[in-house]
Amino acid sequence: MIRKNKLLFLFIFFLISACSSIPKNTADGCSIFSERYLWYKHAKKTEKKWGTPIYIQLAFIKMESDFDWLARPKRLKIFKVIPYRRPSSSLGYSQAVKGTWKQYKEETNNKLATRTRFKDSVDFIGWYTNKTEKLLKISKKDAFRQYIAYHEGWGNYKKYKEKPKIILLAKKVKQQSDKYKNQLNKCSKSLNRKKYIIF
User: Global pTM?
Assistant: First the structure.
């Protein structure tokens, strides 16, 4: 019985590791999806559901967590040595904070959604960018302004010009989204031909 439990534990461990490990080349959309084809299906579903392009979904995740499912902000330090609390409650691929994640779950009725799951993270990004378009009249294809609203929040969006650092981050997201778009244009036919997958 103990041996069976150990084998079951190892199986679950390797399954989780295989599904959640960081792709080898996070700067290349085709490479990401060649390793994690199921991610492509989730991103494609999000694009169809919310209208948010796959390349923008990937660019947000690249900037926010670099595809680390357990990413969290570094702890602040007292006297530059003693670990203190984290600056925010951000977690997972999308780095969504607790309050906004709760709002997302309530509005989409996705009660079992978790921030450490790619499927839920891209759906969250789709939901968020869709609301941004409705509230701020920003196209879901506008990576630069969409990211500013994503990073700063809907209420603080108009103040972004006072923060040069945010503008630099948004420019990086725009550049990365353009790269992803060009990459995916080259491999989309191949990705769409794959219909059957185990993991």
Answer: 0.85
